[in-house]
Design goal:
The chain has 5 helices and 2 strands, in the order βααβααα. By secondary structure, it is mainly α. The chain has 2 domains: 34 residues, no CATH class; 62 residues, Rossmann fold. The protein has a two-stranded parallel ribbon. The termini are close together.
């Protein structure tokens, strides 16, 4: 199991207090933290965005598009509670848990 650096950022920015942040960060750092971006992933994410749009779906936040594309390209299942990933699941084959 792993946590993407951008996911770590999104989770931590949603917390209100430093004590919450420390607790959650310590818990998430039990997993390997990896960079989600390399030189090719933005190009693949943009291609996924265009394809989804051509199919009538749009993934609104760019960060969600990057996270989903990372999962698709690297064969990782995504644990989420975000409806923006639904088109990536149904159209692009994003695996979820």
């Amino acid at each position: 199991m792993l946590v993407g650096d951008l996911i770590l950022c999104e989770v931590l920015q949603g917390l209100c207090t430093d004590s919450e942040r420390r607790l959650v960060e310590d818990a998430l750092r039990e997993f390997e933290v990896v960079s989600l971006i390399d030189a090719e992933l933005p190009v693949k994410a943009a291609g996924n965005h265009r394809f989804l749009r051509s199919q009538g779906s749009t993934v609104r936040p760019t960060i969600d598009l990057i996270i989903g594309t990372f999962g698709i390209e690297r064969g990782h299942a995504l644990l989420h509670g975000d409806r923006d990933f639904t088109p990536m699941e149904h159209v692009l084959g994003l695996q979820t848990v």
